[in-house]
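Appendix B, Record 12. Input sequence as logged:
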Amino acid sequence: MARGEDARAATAVLVDGMLLLDLTPGAAFAAARAGHSLGGVRQVLLSHPHDGPPVEVPAGLPQPVRVPDGRESTLLTGHRVRAVAMDAPGTGYAVTGPQGQRLLYLPPGGSPAGLENGTAESYDMVLADVVGRPDALARLRAAGAVGPATDVVAVHLDHDVPPGAESARRLAAAGARAVPDGATLTVGVYENVPDVPRRTLVLGGARSGKSVEAERRLEAFPDVLYVATGGTRGGDSEWASRVAAHRERRPGSWRTTETCDLVPLLAQDGPPLLIDCLSLWLTDAMDAVGAWDDAVWADAGERDLRERVRELVEAVRGTRRTVVAVSNEVGSGIVPATASGRRYRDELGRLNAAFAGECEQVVLVVAGQAVVLRG
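Logged structural output:
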C-alpha cells in the first residue's frame, strides 16, 4: 500500500487558478492543503463519466460540465480549451494558455481517437494514464504530440500501481514522471526527467518475467521492432504456442523480424529494438562455428565465436538506436553434465557480461520482480 508522498487521491487539475479539470471529493480541502483557493475558478470540466454518488459542488463553483468532442471555447482569461475525443468513454482537454503554452489532459483509461502519425501539434505538458494506457503515450509520440521536450506526467495512479521506487522506475522507462498530490506544475519549464536508457539488458531465469519486463520498457513508444532470434521450428506445436503468446502480448503497432543477424540492425538508424533473446542468438552463433564439436572448438571454433561476440558488442557500443535486449541467466544452477552444456553456460556468461558492459541499465528479473543492477 502506498503511503506518504506515494499515496494519491483521485486526480483533479487546477489550471492557473481559473479552470478546474475534474471535480473530485474534497477538492476544496485538497486545494487549501496545497496553498490554493478555488474561489477564482470560472469553469469546471469533467473528463470521464461519474458512476458513483453525486459529488458535492463546493459553494461558489460553477456546475461541472463535459464539453462535446471537438468543441473549443475561449475563456475571458485568454485560455482556449478544446475537447478531445477518446477511444474509450471520456473526454480529453487541450488547454492553450494566453502565452501559447499547451497542455493536454487525458482521462483514466483513455487515448485520443483518430491520431495519425506526424499530424498533431506538440504539447509542452501531457497529463495522462501512463501506467494504464502506455499505448496512448506511444500514439501521441507517433503523431508528434509528444516530443523530446514534452513534460509527461503520470496521473490517475490507483492502488494497482506499484508504490515507490518501482513506480518511478517504470515511469522513467516510459520517459514520464509522477508528482505528489498538491504539486504545482509550470507548463513549458524544463523538468529534469530521467532519460530513457538507450541500451538496456534484462536478465532472468526461465519464466521469471524477463520478456514482460523488457516489453514494458518500450510499450510507451511507437514502431518498436521486435527482433526474435528463435527462428521457426516446423512441427513443434509447443514452440508455436510460445511464439503466439509473445505476439498477442505485444502492442499492435510493433513490427517483428526473425533473425540472428543483429549487427546490421544495430548499425542502422530507426525505431527502438527489442531483442529477445541473446541466449538464442548465442545458440545460433555456436551452431555456425561448430562449437559443439570438441575438435572444431579447439581448432577454430572458439576463435570464431569470440569474433562474432566482439562484433556484436561493438555494434551495441556504436548503435544510435534505443535497444532493450533479453538474455537468460543460467550460471546459478546445476553444472551441466556434458562438455557442450558447460561450454554453452560459460559462453553465455561471457556474452552477458560483455553486453552488459555497454548498457546504461542492467536489470535482473527474479520471480517477476525486477532488480536494477545498473542505472
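Residues 294-318 form the longest helix (25 residues).
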